[in-house]
Amino acid sequence: MEEIIHQELESQEYFINMGPQHPSTHGVLRLVLSLDGEIIRKVEPHIGFIHRSIEKMCEHDSYQQIVHLTDRMDYLSCHINNEAVCLAVEMGLQLEVPDRVKVIRTIIGELTRLSSHQLWWGVMGMDLGAITSFLYGFRDREMITDIFEETCGARLTMNYNVPGGLMFDIHPNFQRRTKEFITHFKKKLPEYDALLTNNVIFRERTVGIGILSKEDAISYGVTGPAARASGFSCDVREHHPYSYYPKVQFKEVLRTEGDCFARYQCRIDEMWESLSIIEQLIDNIPEGPYKAPTKAVIKLPKGEFYQRVETARGEFGVYIISEGQKNPYRLKFRSPGFSNLSALDHMARGSKIADLVAIMSTLDLVIPDIDR
Amino acid sequence: MRSIVNYFKDIIFGLNSLVTGLKVTGHYFTNPKEIITQQYPENRDTLQMFERFRGEVVLLHNENNEHRCTGCSACEIACPNGTIEIINKKVDIDGRKVKALDTFVYHLQMCTMCGLCIPACPTDAIKMANTFEHAVFDRSQLTKVLNRPGSKLMDGVK
Amino acid sequence: MKALYDFSILTQSIHMWLSDRYTPAAVTIIEMVLVGVAFMILFAILGLVLVYAERKVSAVIQQRMGPTRVGKWGTAQTLADVIKLVLKEPIINKEADKFLFNLAPFIIMIAAFMAIAALPFAKGLQALDFDIGILYVIAVSSLGVIGILLAGWSSNNKYSLIGAMRSGAQIISYELSVALSLLTIVVLTGSLQLSTIIESQADGWWIFKGHIPAWIAFLIFLIASTAETNRGPFDLAEAESELTAGFHTEYSGLKFAFFFLAEFANMFIVCAIGATVFLGGWMPFHIGHWEGFNAVMDFIPPIIWFLVKVSFMIFLMMWFRWTFPRLRIDQLLTLEWKYLLPINLFNILLMALVALMGWHF
Prior knowledge:
The complex is a heterotrimer of chains A (372), B (158) and C (361). Chain A is 50% helix and 12% strand. The longest helix of chain A has 29 residues, at 99-127. By secondary structure, chain A is of the alpha+beta class. Chain A starts with a helix and ends with a helix. The mean pLDDT of chain B is 84. The longest helix of chain B is centred in the N-terminal third of the chain and has 29 residues, at 2-30. Chain B is 24% helix and 23% strand. With 361 residues, chain C is mainly α. Chain C has one domain (7-357). Chain C has helices at 7-21, 24-61, 77-87, 98-116, 133-141, 144-154, 158-189, 194-199, 206-209, 211-228, 240-243, 253-278, 291-299, 302-321, 329-357. Chain C starts with 6 loop residues before the first helix and ends with a helix. Chains in contact: A-B, A-C, B-C. Chain A binds chain B through residues 61, 64-65, 68-69, 71, 132, 139, 142, 146, 149-154, 157, 159, 162, 167-168, 171, 191, 194-196, 198-201, 203, 296, and chain B through 13-14, 17-18, 20-21, 23-25, 36, 50, 52-54, 78, 80, 112-116, 119-120, 128.
């Protein structure tokens, strides 16, 4: 009997275009949803709306000029992207940068990670309908952008790294402001928990939603907090340390549940870890030059160079093929957002439209990072 | 029995968590002094940008209308976007033809404010200014000539 | 009750004055027009005040300033918004069902108008005092869902349709809780007439006199009425981050303004019902036998009491909206059918026991 009813009531699938202009795709991502009522049968991401051919542009830019293009990819972890290019070029030049540079790069990198996670937290709340969290996230992020503006000269696209070091030395106020921010943010982080993490509605919306197993995370190439929430230990800072990370005490945040709430918790815990990394370093910035001497025209030796770093979203890789010229023969970026997006269909099948929004915001997609 | 206890536990836990959230927003509602909004156009006079803020490229002139640009085109080469165009002229100094700056063209509409031109300049002639109100009604106004009319090279700069 | 501030004297005198001059049929028509105009003005004022209040409350909660530019402290901001909405082009989707598309906003507004007619604003200031006032208000306020369903269906937009279907499921479920939580108090009053319910609270509001079951009923009423007005954590029909704007995605200009106004009018109506049933309507706050204190309280006009109570309830709803994340549709229905409804039924039994044993004050 039940079967007959089921057959009689069998509904037809229909399609919805979510995006390119949609409040929760955070940019111009187009998702073609195949729906049965409210239940998602298939998600097909269409990308490329803001493809700017950055990789091709890099081929006729000098190595110093490439750095500022990476600001425009994952704009929320731009300093870390810059660092990746600089590290790759320094690897090619076999250049040893001063300790001061490494420490400053690490501090600003962690500040970037914090600011990215703060924005993500606010946007995550907004996607789930709690608009207030968006403004609280931005309020705390404002302090970090002020630090960036004072030291690096810009709030978002900082372009503070150059191959061999930094563009200029840190501002005299840098340490004071960073310490102020740490004390401020340590008071505000528990507020984040009170507002969202412990909220019963928020838990209902995230616990057990969009489960990604460890095996799937590995096979889809998911990295960053999204993979670590599934128990896949993939922190580049831990496994292939760069800059000053080998000498800093921190622990990789790992969770095993693999659902939206685990990914959320991973990022919240990473904020605490970042705060502790900055606290270890901020009083111990060694004296020294802020830049290793390099030639005005940098020519990499013939060969291939690959450098990976951990951005706020996952593993970011720079692959340079050099022919010995002043610009690379070919340059490839491995962006975390692109591979994280590929797991979206797998995670979202069988859940509802509202869950898709939650899954997308816990993947923390930045569309220019996907399209490049 | 246990499920009934859990049922009520859930309700109490849920209500408690909701009240905690309400407390946070309630705190800010009752403390409007913590508002951090800047009243931008009104505070224009007092607004102080950070000194390193990169707003646009300017060519520095002193009070005698002299600049330090020799027209070497190092900034033009360093610029990734073709923002800067240096047009040179030949001038007679002591009977010798010497290259000198004629027009320093700056296309603000193409500038990404990366700041690569500043360290590239050998004579510290250019600088990033703090201005940020760049909106104009016509795109052609964004193409600027940075050297002032009648300005000349500062003595002793090579 | 003292004769201080009795509006029935005023309304009676208007009635007498009209009756002296016109036939009874004409008097009825003139009075209907007068009341209609009065409610239209009230709606306009409500829209202006509540939109401004919502923007300011949300701004302060989010550590912003809210509107500050238009007028002193931005008070004329809503007026500017209205002008903008009136001047906007009314765009109709090419494939839309034009008749239903144009009809939907009016149905929502009519439902709100019908509901507000039965509200007692002060003693004697009530357009229609039915014997079954509460039943009437509950029945009429749920008519609005027809407008939402029509809007969603006729827009020929899948987002609108999903939003409308969600709204239908939501309002049909949560009506039960609203009605049952109000019935809990009706057990005590023994009357469905709104004016009688208010008179019965002259010696204390039901939320105090009914103690524990009344508190539970009040809480459930708050949750369910928030859901019934499509607000706060229950705004699934609009669900900005999922469905762009839900059922009114395709609306623009004045028709959108109607939806917008109806949302705030509905909020006012449910808060007014809550204030009437639980918080004593226009009854002043009295404490036992403190005669001096009670006399001072009586001196404050009842309409002020009513508005203060309603604004308190409205503030609670705004506070909810700007704090909580949104529920998912199945969780929304779970909350109603698995939690609110059983608790509510049990609560009515408890209240009946309290009323029978005379345990209330």
